[in-house]
Amino acid sequence: MSTTTYQWKGKSAKGETLKGEYEAQDQREVGEYLRKRRIVITSISKKPKDINISFLEKKSVGVKDLSVFTRQFATMVNAGLPLVQCLDVLGRQLEKPHFKSVVQQVMADVEGGSTLAEALEKHPKVFSDLFVNMIAAGEAGGILDVILARLAVFLEKADALQRKVKGAMTYPTIVLTVAGGACIFMLMFVIPVFAKMFSDFGGTLPAPTRIVMGFSDFLRDYWWALGAGSVILTVAYKQFRATKKGRFLTDKAALRFPILGNVLRKSAVARFTRTLGTLIGSGVPILQGLEITAKTAGNMVIKEAIDHTATSISQGDTIAEPLKASGVFPPMVVQMISIGEQTGALDEMLSKIADFYDDEVDSAVEALTAAIEPLMIVVMGTMVGGMLVAMYLPMFKMSEIVGG
Fold this sequence. Notes:
This protein is mainly α. 75% of the residues lie in helices and 6% in strands. It has 15 helices and 3 strands. The protein has a 3-stranded antiparallel beta sheet with strand order 2-1-3, with helices on one face. The N and C termini lie far apart (87 Å).
């Protein structure tokens, strides 16, 4: 069920005026929470919806923020501090207001008698299913500090992997943006100056010059149509990708893209094996682990392969066979998972595969960068240099006429 944020006011046993916010399914739940804290309620009301101004407050909690929080939490629990005290200390030192508020609400729930997993589950936008299930397994087995440490390692590696993939995309995006901006500037402002000079000169212009001038005239006359067309295409793409079929087709195309598809595939394999290995090693049942892993796959093709694997396992099959049948996972990965199943060390084998593919992502990113650099130079040289040559050709013709 969805929750609503309520604002409350009340008085403590000492007569102090208190106020705050609490996420709950209804006002009754807020009342119970306040009574447990011995607060005399004076008012409870739904919090008005905030106007979302992203540059004023960033509400998202990133993987890096969560990994730092989890690492510190693990250290404090391992030192023997009570959960409520750990959460209180962590909440006080957090800089992001939204994250601070969430941790304070978790602390209040734990103080009120909830388990840590139950308290975290109320905030799915911050704590994923993977996080909550691992915490639940840690609490049940009495090894919460071990599970938190394992979660911290997982989140740190996930953050590193995410940054590698983003880094691979940043360079070509910047280069293409600069090249496109330079071409648009030349076509809009530089080429028209040459065009006027050539028209005054008269005579027939070389074909490359006429083509460039035609592009310039079209861009200056119909820039609004190109802008509107770009917006329409972007919106249409987003709407198409919002559908299940659209997401599947675009993700499938991305995996088949030269060089970049290799980076995406290897990062998906690393994420899958790391997540499943961490969950199984923490005591989460394999079917539940696959369900959670599918949600964090990041690619619909990988997700469907994992979902199919979960269905096959529920019918008595092994993990390796449906993964092999999907055709998505490399033979080496399937073979190592099969060995892990046979030896009863599946979690360790999955972790080894994840470590290997983390290194493979590094190599793939380096290969992508090495391939893109000369390609970008050629593209920029062709675009900018081609326009310059096209503009200088008539000048050579003019110099021949003057010299003659």
